[in-house]
Specification:
This protein has a single domain (about 5-250), classed as Alanine racemase (TIM Barrel). The longest helix is centred in the N-terminal third of the chain and has 21 residues, at about 10-30. With about 270 residues, the chain is an alpha/beta fold. Helix 4 (about 95-105) runs parallel beside helix 5 (about 115-130) and helix 6 (about 165-175) crosses helix 8 (about 200-215). It contains ten helices and eight strands. An eight-stranded parallel β-sheet has the order 7-6-5-4-3-2-1-8. Bound molecules: pyridoxal-5'-phosphate (PLP). Pyridoxal-5'-phosphate binds near residues 45, 89, 246 and 248.
């Protein structure tokens, strides 16, 4: 791949992507009855850097993009403009955390933190970045704690009952990180049943966990954002109080199978 400056964006593809994200933005607006501020993270995992550039360029000027795999994120971030705000939303390996936070100055948020150790590694990486390049990475790296709201063993995330203690650790022990809120993926089966009318139990659980954490930490609930809702359920998530939705397929189309994706270096294990 080449630099963003000489990357070729196919005009037809760019037009299609702009239409798709415009449609999602309309749906968000329609679902957002309370007229809150809602962030749309465009989930670009396994999609080419040219798709991201097409949406980041005017007139769309989308700034928030989500990626799942450390290696893919690192590669894309090195090619694409610094004005992008990257969100790491995928399963994190502790041994990748430090370099992610250090190497990607425009890594804006890590949404999948589920242990003190991962928070500590991100803290070390961001501290090193600030010390080596004063002025770069001056703003704190935002952290969302991923909560396992569905109780499924296969899902990553902390248990609701352990969430406050991890949040406290990030807030009190990690000066280069900013506790931004809580994230859940939720069970697929439940998300299929979710409409704007029926409540999704995962989203109820995340909201309740947020309220408890706020109380235990002496914070106002509004200081902790909720990141919940994907292509299949983002309208319902907004109705239930989501502050951030992470939408991939509806914007970019179906993804290639993970094993076919052209990403070097990641192991199958971390792609689960
Ligand atoms: C892939 C992914 C998304 C986007 O999923 P879509 O169904 O394609 O919208 C959102 N959040 C996380 C954590 C993901 O891994």
């Amino acid at each position: 791949m080449s630099e963003a400056s000489d990357m070729q964006v196919n005009p037809q593809r760019a037009k299609q992507l702009a239409e798709n994200i415009g449609h999602v933005a309309q749906m968000i607006g329609a679902a957002n009855k309370a007229n809150r501020k809602i962030r749309l993270v465009a989930v670009s995992k396994l999609k080419p850097a040219t798709d991201i550039l097409a949406l980041h360029n005017p007139p769309t000027s989308q700034v928030d993009f989500g990626e799942n795999y450390a290696q893919e994120l690192t590669e894309k971030a090195s090619l694409l403009p610094r004005s992008i705000r990257w969100h790491m939303i995928g399963a994190l390996q502790s041994n990748k955390c430090r370099s992610l936070a250090k190497q990607i100055p425009n890594l804006w948020c890590v949404s999948s933190v589920d242990s003190n150790k991962k928070a500590d590694e991100l803290e070390k990486g961001r501290k090193a970045l600030v010390e080596e390049q004063p002025g770069v990475g001056k703003t704190k790296l935002r952290i969302m704690v991923q909560v396992n709201t569905s109780g499924e063993e296969s899902k990553s995330g902390v248990e609701p009952s352990d969430t406050a203690s991890l949040c406290r650790h990030v807030r009190d022990k990690c000066p280069h990180l900013q506790l931004a809120g809580l994230m859940t993926i939720g069970a697929i089966a439940r998300s299929k049943e979710t409409t704007a009318e029926t409540e999704n139990e995962d989203f109820v659980a995340l909201r309740e966990t947020r309220d408890k954490v706020a109380q235990e930490l002496g914070m106002d609930p509004s200081e902790l954002e909720l990141s919940m809702g994907m292509s299949s359920d983002f309208e319902g998530a907004i109705a239930q109080g989501s502050d951030e939705v992470r939408v991939g397929t509806t914007i970019f189309g179906e993804r290639p199978l993970r094993k076919d994706a052209k990403v070097k270096g990641d192991t199958e294990e971390e792609r689960k």
